[in-house]
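Changelog-adjacent note: as of this version, every example in the card shows the full chain rather than a window. The one below runs 295 residues end to end.
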Amino acid sequence: MLHINIREYLNRRNALFLIFALVAFIMTYTPIQALRSSDKSEYYTHIALIPLVTLYLLYLKRKEILSTQHYSFSRGIPVLACALALFAGGQIWGVTLDHNNFASLIALSVTIFIHGAFLLLYGPKSYRKAIFPLCFLIFVVPIPTVLMDGIITLLQIGSTEFTNLLFMISGVPYVREGFVFHLPQISVEVAKQCSGIRSALALFITAILAGYLFLRSSWKIAFLGICAVIIAMFKNSIRIITLSLLGNYVDVRILESSLHREGGIPFFIVSLILMAPILFFLRRSERTKQASTDP
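Full-length structure tokens:
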């Protein structure tokens, strides 16, 4: 009888958390839908997957979380109150914001709301054990416009420099003017639309998730994330030079073909292949260090 009561108790707690998560989804649904009509909608195709990954990561750590759970109203309610206040502020001042910044503010409030709900239902000890899955939810928050513009500029500059390096290695005659490369038959500009922001975000999120699953050191996870950004720029330069050479020496129409508009998946696979050895050596270094410390 005691076993059944405990099981029902645990199920009730989990059900309450799912209800909080459902309320959070309802809170953020409208601004995220509105974001789809903006020019930045293609940057956030990953948002729908993030909550599913978070739930899966929480499921993997369920035994650790449930072993120390207890209600914590003193910790959870203030966080929930802050989240609701931020949400209310977003509703009041949202008319002065564009779709991207409005969605960013509401999604941030919802993320904090879920953190507060977890603290209230499971307590600080369980919260510490679930900190990464919960913090992973930050990727559902659209990047504010000012910060996004800075990231795109950084990726544009990095992609241009890598493209310049690859042109130099290839021996193809060209003249560079800023972001523009003049080849014998065509001129190619590495515009902001060619920064590769969508694949860079996807690769960065993948790197952080892989680092959490396979590495123990926080600085190595961060290092893997930095490497992912660099690889994203290098991968983008490979795509640019490939399309440029095909357009210059094969058919200029390739620059307007589906290979240009929708050919990112093969190059994204290339970036994953480039990242795999880095993850392997980071993981291997941890195993070597652990073996050296074991008696």
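Structural remarks: Residues 1-6 have pLDDT under 50 and may be disordered.
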